[in-house]
Amino acid sequence: MAIIEFEGVELGYNGRPVLKVKSLDIEEGITCLIGPNGSGKTTFLRGVSGILKPIKGKIKVYGYDLFSPEADNIRPKIGLLPENSSPYPDMTVIEYLKYWAEFYGTSMSSVKRVLEMFDLVKIKDKLCSALSQGQKRRVMLARIFLIKPKLLVLDEPTANLDPEVSYNLMKLIARMGREIPIIYSTHLLREVEHVFDRLLFIKNGKIVANYTRDDVEGMDLYEVYMKVSGGITE
User: CB of 101 within 8 A of CB of 111?
Assistant: First the structure.
């Protein structure tokens, strides 16, 4: 079953398209969107998360058109982690999560659940401004999981993290991907080679290749990338 469907979609700003996707179905698992900076990854994710309305076409999630009245059935269950997003610096971790639990109308027991889920119990009374970048990223994911999302959208979640923290975050993402569909953008192939179920290569506002893990099993992903896009990634 397709979790996400693009039908004749053009996404852009001020009426000018910067991304065109004629037809695309995305199923369960971890889908990694690979491309250089400025290729259209963030625009793609803004469309999938219901923030950016298409100039043309439809984007459906679980069968619901994201920009129709029926979208109220699914849009609140899409969890988006924007690039370089951080929790409010003047709140402690638990204050921040309680604030959002109240905003979402979820129970306080959900705060305890996500504190444990994202290994935040020991730092729950720390000011968010005193957290490391990796800890801040986990707090942001915990906030998203207060709503028990049905789709997780991650925009460059390991940006500006050191290698060890990035590695641990990728392990966490892989674990979450067993439970809910994840769309994940990056320009670093080495990050995703062990976690993806589907690879979408994007260049100049177009999906230039769409592969399942089976399609590229045993292949060098760097060579695949060079072949389909003529680009260079780190």
Answer: yes
Give the C-alpha separation, 72 to 158, whole Å. 30
Looking at the chain, how many residues does it have? 234
3-class secondary-structure state, position 193: coil
Q: Calculate the alpha carbon distances from 41 to 62, 146, 185, 187, 218 in Å.
A: 21, 26, 6, 9, 26
The answer to whether 142 and 68 have CB atoms below 8 angstroms apart is no
Residue 112 included in any domain: no
Range of the domain at 58: 4-83+149-229
Considering its fold, how many domains does the chain have in total? 1
What is this structure's pTM? 0.90
What are the per-10-residue average pLDDT scores of the chain (234 residues)? 94 96 96 91 96 97 95 94 94 98 94 96 98 95 95 92 89 91 89 88 93 88 79 47
Residue with tokens 């250089």: 36
- Kindly state whether residue 138 falls inside one of the protein's structural domains: no
Four-residue CA torsion sign, 176, 149, 65, 183: negative
Both tokens assigned to 96: 């921040």
Contact assessment for residue 9 and residue 20, using Cβ atoms and an 8 Å cutoff:
yes
Residue 104 lies in a domain: no
- The domain spanning residue 153 has which CATH number? 3.40.50.300
Taking the mean position of all CA atoms in its chain, how far away is CA 49?
Answer: 9
> 88 burial class (0-12, 13-18, 19+ CB within 10 angstroms)?
middle
Identify whether 159 is part of a domain: yes
